[in-house]
Amino acid sequence: MSLCVSADAGLCKFLNRRGDVETSFNRLSGQAVKCGFGLQGICCRLCSNGPCRITLKTSRGVCGATADVIVARNFLRAVAAGAACYLHVVENAANVLKNTDLPYPGEGLLDELAGRFGIGAGGSKEKAAQLAGRVLEDLYRPRGERMELVERLAFPRRFKRWEELGILPGGAKAEVFDALVKSGTNLSSDPVDMLLHCLRLGIATGIYGLTLTNHINDILAGEPEIGTVRVGFSVVDPGYINIMVIGHQQALFSALQRELETPEAVEKARQAGAKGFRIVGSTCVGQDLELRSAREHGVFAGHAGNNFTSEPLLATGGIDLVVTEFNCALPGIEDLCERFRVRQVCIDDVAKKRNAEHLPYDFGDSRAFAGKIMDAALSSYAGRRKEIAPDIPEHGFDGAVAGIGEKSLKKFLGGSYKPLIDLIAGGQIKGIAGVVGCSNLATRGHDVFTLELTRELIRRDIIVLTAGCTSGGLANLGMTVPEAAEQAGEKLKEVCKKMGIPPVLNFGPCLAIGRLETVAAEIAGMLNVDLPQLPLALSAPQWLEEQALADGAFALALGLLIHLGSSPFIEGSELVTGILTRDLEEMTGGRVLVAEDPTQAADAMESHILKKREKLGI
Amino acid sequence: MGKKRYVIIGNGAAAIRAAETLRALDESGCITMVSREQGPAYSRCMLPAFLAGEKNEDDLRIRAGDFYEKHGIKTLFGSRAVDVDAGRRCVVLEGGSRVDYDSLLIATGSSTAFPAIKGLEGPGLFGLRDLSDARKILDVAGRGRRAVILGAGLVGLEAAVALARRGMEVTVVEKMPHLLPRQLDPAAAEILRRDLDGVGLRMIMGTGVQEAAAPESSGAGAVWDLLLDNGEHLRAEMVIAATGIRPNVDPVLGTGMRINRGITVDGRMRTSIPEIYAAGDVAETRDVITGVRMLTPTWLHASLQGMIAAWNMAGRPRLYPEPVGIQNVVQLHRVPVLALGVSNPQDASCEVIAIHRPAENLYRKLVLKDGALVGAILAGDIRMAGILAALMRRKADVSGFKDLILSGDFHCGYLARTG
Amino acid sequence: MCRPGKLEGVDVKAVMVYLDRCYGCLTCSLACAAAHSASGTITGAMRERVPGRILVEAAGKQPVPILCRHCDDAPCVNACMIGAMQQDPVTGLVSNEGHTQACAGCWMCIMACPYGAIVQAPRGERMALKCDGCRGRETPACVMACPNGALAYVEVDDFAGERRLKLAFCLAEDMTRDSRAYGG
User: How many CB pairs under 8 A join A and C?
Assistant: First the structure.
């Protein structure tokens, strides 16, 4: 077995030392041969005349579908699936809010949103229930009815543009549903219409799946506050009963967090021989927990790492229970859990593991539910620690800056984005890059592209905002500690040192891509320009899955440049590639840029930013 | 000129390959094969399988039954060549008869070199070089239950495993500290040793035999008594010596031919005497890696040398492509193990890189000198062996991708060119 | 070097690889497995766990089909110590099947093949597996299956053809890992 590279030397060292453990890193080389038809998106399995492929010899499938049709159908299905994922998350969050009793740590935000949504007087509980109801109502609307909250949350100039283009989404779930219908066998064969549908799904994803999920989580668990945290495997303390959480739905953990902190819980842990319980963050939900506990960590041990560090994390033996509620719950964790005798509990069957016990989240009695999780952790701990000795490597960083959100950043800047705008206008900061999304192994290695691109960007005095597995990776690589400023260009370095900030600002989970949009909208609002005019570029250098494509569709609807480190399986169609990478800019202002080299990607993002600066006259 | 007379002394890998190549190149020439052994050509390398009872004598044949007839080859089997009269260009057989040649190939192979140990002589002591050895071993194996093998080289271990498969109690005694000392290093040898745990051999390493007491008779109950350097006594009904070989150069000793350890040949397999060629275990060639002249007693080299000799004998000059001298692969139980070239470098300027995962029975060791691969050991995963041997032979600079080779992901696709 | 026993007037064909047309879809390998399975179908071959004898490996991003070149004076033939690996004097096909002697799985041929085109049979069986040229088929299954024409079954009876093959698939001495160097 051979090992794939990671930018994380400590992780590589650990994996090399544990040659007896099989993870995704080992399996990558076995999948090194990539099917060119799949890569180009020109394989169609929609009917029994297939699978059909567009080859050098044949330009159409049996049904007559061209490469353009096949690529567009495949792409729409992927975006629809990704949108569905985020919509599932917001649906659950709204249901938790509806069923949660006072107090709400984010009550201020609740009031603010109630005002914005026109929710009248009433107690906080009533407001929360109504707000949740309004979200759910929109999600469940038929496709012919526009969702109401879009207008209330979207940047006004964008909303207008979307209305002109006719891409305002109907009910979000119905949009997903009809995307599946449309891309079915011998239904739509209009690539352009299917791409427009992607934009509608992107808007639904962004406003609901991202922004509203963040808002609801902020109400339930409190708004982010800036602080410094420890990250990496070293957050695992074998003295505790460690519960590793995998997923994207912090709302499902609020009750558990509260329950594990009670003296009764601590006593139970003590009786089992541990100091107490700890929640160990892994994947995006760990980032969410970190985001809201940068000041007060409570039972949250810290964030251990992103998607592809979850398997190695299990191999440390320091984890006693795995709770999955969403992706990225790699199938590979099943065998590792068996090997390291870690009990698995799945609380949302969309992330069901073969050998996990299904304990569905109880919206009605979240306390009792939390008790069940605690009991599972206790029994797993008692059984496994006799046989498995934790082997936790020195890994990660201390003093990583976390807890950055649209409001905490504003507060940090003195209550307004003006200082940031001034720095950009003055040229000390050339522009803003959002380096977001996933990590993968195939695009140069785990976190490798992300790190190389980020370094290239900050060297050019472009400040990097990050959200998703990119931020988990960059944090574990030491890019979010203030000392990382040394790697920035002279001007950005000076800014960072003066303000005591790193050149890479960690906004947390991929859901926080919605927060980046809010930051951009605030800046654009102050400048009285539209989003596409900002010196801002996005990159999802190591995008992994369909959700990332739905995020990307949102970015395109917002009118932003979005770089991808590998093609989203569209290159088999000149039409689709042409629209997404070129022609769309005329419509929304956004476009896709595929660059497989970090320096080239940084060059392109920088030149985009410079062009925007020039147009703004700064 | 009439039909050319080709004479081949030998009937092994080199001889057979030479004969069939000669026939392909020269349809009308007279080909005569002389061999002290009776019967058609067989695979010496498969003798262990014969010992183990997995193959019968017919299974050992390396060519179809009508091979000699079909290729128009005259066979003088059961005739020992005792001398070569280079002046009169004839081979002298035991009994005095002569066979004239225009072109002669010496492919006489090698014999067991019995170690010089006090008392090591008598019934029940065998080598394992030919079918008659194997038959004699089987004869004793039918009566006895214990065997001692001297030497944990390839022949010794294969014989040991074969006899163990027959249900015998087998003890292997090796002077050097690990198995296959000429090919492997301690790490690879340890993987092999653990693999052999599944066979049930006793192995005594780092110890030689001080003295041997032969049995009184060769009948039932005759038992050897070996006193080891460590003071232990081993008793067994048979002893197999597998500590070395001796090229069969006897027929040409009187010719004045240049002989070092074996018959020295040039790049066209020519000996120092005109129209006499040599190939196989008896020949000594130059190693492409070390530049040193050496014996290459493996099937692969013997075949290739026989083939090259034949081209030159037929008047079609062709050079020996100088494959890597040491190339051995063996799978005694479940784990294949392979050694190429200088696998245990003494030269401090060599760079050694390795991956060692004993739990997976995986070992991969590369030896580089000046950027080129000069040696390798593979255990467990041998897929890359042929490519590595080719890179070694070409002395290709692999410094740019040695880690890729070490990872096990290297393949010849990296060397492909569109044309 | 031409094969000594080659007959005049007999077309000797070989599989030519056009690297720039290979998309790495593995269809050739599946078709090969099917052709060597009892069922004769791709799904049947998967069920029977029959491996493909044409490999597709990735050199960087360039997929490279790796298959036996059926060399004249093949190293694997010389290496075979049981006489199982032989070259057919008429068709030029090199195979360790269909001869008097059965393959013993000694792996000498694997050690000898500079292309790495011979593999061990799965599940510990002592048998070396390699392309047998799909004897009995007019065109090998892999060539028939390739959707992009990356594999072609062409005559190699002239010098030019042979030279092309070597160029297309040679052990170069100035190799680099850079995938861009491999064309396609």
Answer: 38
Any idea of the CA torsion for A514, A518, A520, A525, to the nearest 10 degrees?
A: 150
Token pair belonging to A461: 């005095």
How close C147 gets to chain A, by Cα (Å)? 6
pLDDT band at residue C171, thresholds of 50, 70 and 90?
very low
Contact C26 A37 (CB under 8 A): no
Q: Is residue C25 pLDDT above 70, yes or no?
A: yes
Q: Could you tell me whether strands B209-213 and B73-77 are parallel, antiparallel, or unpaired per DSSP bridges?
A: unpaired
Residues of B in contact with C64 (CB under 8 A): 411-414, 416
pLDDT for B260 beyond 70: yes
> Is the confidence at residue A469, as pLDDT, over 50?
yes
Q: What is the ipTM of this complex?
A: 0.93
Residue in A32, A38, A56 nearest the CB of C149: A56
The answer to whether the CB of A209 falls within 8 A of the CB of A554 is no
pLDDT band at A120, cuts 50/70/90?
confident
C18, C19, C20, C23, best to mutate vs chain A, most A CBs in 10 Å = C23
> What residues of chain C lie within 8 A of the CB of A34, using their CB?
24, 58, 61, 63
Q: What is the pLDDT of residues A147-192, one digit of tens each?
A: 999 999 999 999 999 999 999 999 999 999 999 999 999 999 999 9
Q: Could you tell me if B115 and B108 are in contact, meaning their C-beta atoms sit under 8 angstroms apart?
A: no
Q: Mind telling me the catalytic residues of B? A: 45
User: With 0-12 CB in 10 A as exposed, 13-18 as middle and 19+ as buried, what is A264?
Assistant: exposed
* Residues 6 or more apart in contact with residue A388 via CB below 8 angstroms: A317, A340, A341
- Shortest CA distance from A30: residue in chain B: B409
Considering the entire predicted model, what is its pTM? Answer: 0.84
Partner chains of C (3+ C-beta pairs under 8 Å): A, B
Interface test with B, best of A2, A16, A17 (most B CBs within 10 A): A2
Q: Where are the domains of chain C?
A: 6-155
Q: pLDDT category, B323, cuts 50, 70, 90?
A: confident
Nearest by CB to residue B409, choosing from A2, A19, A20, is A2
- CATH code: domain C6-155 is 3.30.70.20
Please tell me the number of Cα atoms within 13 Å of C29 on its side-chain side: 22
Look at residues A139, A213, A129 and name the one whose alpha carbon lies nearest to residue A169. A139
Contact (CB, 8 A) for C109 and C128: yes
Nearest to B357 among A19, A29, A32 (CB): A19
- The stretch A456-461 carries a mean pLDDT of 98
Contact assignment for C148 to A57 by CB distance below 8 Å: yes
The pLDDT of residue B218 is above 80: no
Q: Which domains does chain B have, with CATH numbers?
A: 5-111+245-313 (3.50.50.60), 125-241 (3.50.50.60), 342-418 (3.30.390)
Q: Which of B318, B387, B419 minimises the CB distance to C168?
A: B419
- The confidence score (pLDDT) of residue C166 equals 45
